[in-house]
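Hey team,

Filing this mostly as a record. A colleague (T.K.) asked me to run one chain through the structure pipeline before their review meeting, and I want the input and output archived in the tracker in case anyone asks later how it was produced. No errors, nothing strange. Just documentation.

Input sequence:
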Amino acid sequence: MNDEELTNSLSNIKNLIPFGCLLYIYVPKDNSTDWKLNPRSIPCVFLGFGNDQGMKCYIGYDIKTGKLYHSVNVWWDETFFPCR
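Output structure:
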């Protein structure tokens, strides 16, 4: 028996993102040390979903610095996988 048979409803798959795709995480202006014309996003590898301060967020890994980021302000490219 699958989930749809148990709940009598269709599964919601519209929020699925491929694991390992390119994820751009927005960095707010007050947290950025760069001057105003530099980009305000960090390219990361998408690792999954998290729960930050009670909100659903996205988890990204910055390959250059080795840092993990949790953010709700993201944009992803499902066609590019930086770790391949």
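Quick notes for T.K.: Strands lie at 22-26, 41-52, 55-61, 68-71, 74-77. The helical segments are 3-7.
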